Amino acid sequence: MIHVGVNGHGTIGKRVADAVRAQPDMEVVGVAKTRPNFEASTAVEKGFDLYAAVAERKPRFAEAGIDLAGDVE
């Protein structure tokens, strides 16, 4: 099994994550985001573990009600 981390979940990242998920020999192990925006909440809704790309911004995700699995640092 190939484990893949996706940096971002915008126009490109969401397509990469969905394409990896569709592969039988690959698994998305997480998505990193810098901001707690719509794309971040969409990644969580799709079942991806979400990581803060910048550790100092973790409180912003909590304030926005978006659960994190951790940070990338």
Fold and architecture overview:
This protein is an alpha/beta fold and 73 residues long. It has a single domain (2-71), classed as 3-Layer(aba) Sandwich (Rossmann fold), CATH 3.40.50.720. Helix content is 32%, strand content 26%. The protein contains three helices and four strands, in the order βαβαβαβ. It has helices at residues 13-21, 38-45, 58-63; strands spanning 2-7, 26-33, 50-52, 70-71. The chain has a four-stranded parallel β-sheet, with helices on one face. The radius of gyration is 12 Å and the shape is globular. The mean pLDDT is 97.
Instruction: Estimate the global geometry from the Cα principal axes.
Output: globular
The class by helix and strand makeup works out as: alpha/beta
- SSE ordering: EHEHEHE
The helicity comes to 25-40%
How much of the polypeptide forms β-strand, as a percent range?
25-35%
For the biggest sheet, the summary is: 4 strands, parallel
